Amino acid sequence: MDKIPWQRVRWSGYLSFATILTFLIVILRFDFTLFNQYMLDRKTPPPIKAADNLVLPKPVVSYLRNDIPVYTINMGTQDIVKIEVVFFSGRPFEDKKLVARTTSRLLKEGTTDKSASEIAEQIDFYGGTISVPVNLDTTNITFYSLRKHLDALLPLLGEIICAPSFPQEEMDALIANSRQRLKIDLSKNDIVAYRKITENIFGKAHPYGYNSEAPLYSQLERKDLIHHHQKNMVAGNTMIFLSGKIDDQVLKKVDRYLGDIPPGKKREESIFPALPATVRKEHLHHSDTIQTAVRIGRRLFNRAHPDFHGMYVLNTIFGGYFGSRLMENIREKKGYTYNIFSSMDTMMFDGYFYVGTEVSNDLTQKTVAEIYHEMEVLQNDLVSEKELLMVRNYLLGSLLTMLDGPLNIINVVKETVSEGIPENHFENLVKTIQRISPQELRDLAQKYFRKEDFWELAVGKQQF
Predict the structure, then answer these.
(1) How far apart are CA 356 and CA 335, in angstroms?
(2) How many whole angstroms separate alpha carbon 205 and alpha carbon 211?
(3) How confident is the model at residue 71, as a pLDDT?
(4) In a 3-state reduction of DSSP, which class is residue 131?
(5) Which residue among 60, 119, 126, 281 is buried most deeply as judged by most CB within 10 Å?
(6) How far apart are CA 115 and CA 108, in angstroms?
């Protein structure tokens, strides 16, 4: 082969490089021209557009052969199926404290035919997930799978529901771990404060008020779990929520493997003990902490209450998002704390409202005074239209994310159906956010922000 002179190679390389460089310059000049033509004005914010026409899709309702209702949202393009089996078997329905929680956590730890490791191995092999998150009112078994693996994983889900073995060794390990975790939790001011404020609001005997304690774990026996499961985790006490890419074949498979859940009896009406008659201040001394956890709370109501939607907006203005009154005053202006918030926690039969923060010990009293000051401002002054517009857009944007895809939509459907809320609850919430007036917000503040209705709790060195 003849050798190519190095000069020719060099000039050939130069020519190729020059050609490429010229081409890039032309492209870049063209791009910069477009950029200059459509360049964003960084000093002017984009216009705010309201999220209109937020409508919750209606589920299709069908029934398994054991009469369990199935609520289906058939949407999406991915071959994913989500099944959530909801049993009304939480605290309001237990015969012994902590038995509902312990039963739920041990469902996956063995069946009559499989050990916990075999269950986990089969789930992992097919790329599915089965989780049992802890809830106060219900036991929710959440299942994800690809459609092509339903025949492999749905029988396992049915076995976990119908034939858990509650192995004694797994129960002993869970109780030991729970006790150890409890010791760690009780050393943290914020956790102690949360436990105590709910106990104060509802009382130690109430399902929503009692807290896990070491003696309660000692009283649990395996037979308690078996009884709770047989009594409450039955078809007459169950709803199923199905979402993803659903067709008749998927529904038939769900019926085939979950239609064997025994019928049982429907849940009985829960009877709750009387709530504490008076509110008070309380201080729990923790001498080895540099901060005091503050909680101020009161009993409120569940989602079905006629004032829920309005309070949802008022709570957001007060302390429910980063731009709230509490954050602006106590964090940004005063610098008393890194984080402060207010929350409306709702359950099936009740609810409560509370304010939470952690502050330096010497700022406890000043922080509490500022919290009540912000309540008084909302009781006396009208919210400006500018602030209300910001909150409207924030809340509507949050609701919009709840409608993003079938897996999110089914969560809204589940909350609405399982809590017995009217079907138009979501649409009414949207309307309230869009239309509530400053006068209505002031009326709600005068009704629910009265200082004499609030429990006050400080956990740390400093008293009120």
Answers:
(1) 16
(2) 10
(3) 97
(4) strand
(5) 119
(6) 9
Strands (DSSP E) along 336-450, which ranges?
Answer: 340-346, 351-360
d(CA 104, CA 207) in angstroms, rounded, equals: 16
Let me know: does 263 contact 234? Beta carbons within 8 Å: yes
Distance separating alpha carbons of residues 464 and 458, to the nearest angstrom: 7
CA-CA distances (angstroms) from residue 388 to 49, 316, 325, 328, 392? 15, 10, 12, 15, 6
Q: Using CA atoms, how far apart are residues 102 and 315, in angstroms rounded to an integer? A: 33
Q: For residue range 289-334, list pLDDT tens digits in order.
A: 789 999 999 999 999 999 999 999 999 999 999 999 999 999 999 9
Distance CA 302, CA 413 (A): 16
DSSP string, 164-209: B---HHHHHHHHHHHHHHHHHHTT-HHHHHHHHHHHHHH-TTSTTT
Spatial separation of the C-alpha atoms in residues 355 and 278, rounded to whole Å: 19
What pLDDT shows up at residue 438?
97
* Under 8 Å between Cβ of 160 and 97: no
Phi and psi angles of residue 143, each rounded to the nearest 5 degrees, phi first: -130, 130
Task: For residue range 122-170, list pLDDT tens digits in order.
Answer: 999 999 999 998 899 999 999 999 999 999 999 999 999 999 999 999 9
**pLDDT at position 50, please?**
66
Lowest mean pLDDT among 5-14, 55-64, 91-100: 5-14
| Degrees to nearest 5, angle at CA 410 with 409 and 411 | 90
End-to-end CA distance of the chain: give it in Å, rounded: 96
Q: Taking the C-alpha atoms of 38, 44, 46 and 50 in order, what is their torsion angle to the nearest 10 degrees? A: -150
For 243-301, give the DSSP string: EES--HHHHHHHHHHHTTS----PPPPP--PPPPSS--EEEEE-TT-SEEEEEEEEE--
351-375: b (≥16 Cβ within 10 Å) or e: bbbbbbbbbbeebbeebbebbeebb
**CA angle (176, 142, 354) in 5-degree steps:** 70
Give the HSE-up count for residue 152: Cα atoms under 13 Å, Cβ half-sphere. Answer: 16
pLDDT computed for residue 23 by the predictor: 56
- Specify the pLDDT at position 9: 44
Q: What is the pLDDT of residues 63-120, one digit of tens each?
A: 999 999 999 999 988 899 999 999 999 999 999 999 999 999 999 999 999 999 999 9
Q: Which domains does the chain have, with CATH numbers?
A: 60-258 (3.30.830.10), 281-460 (3.30.830.10)
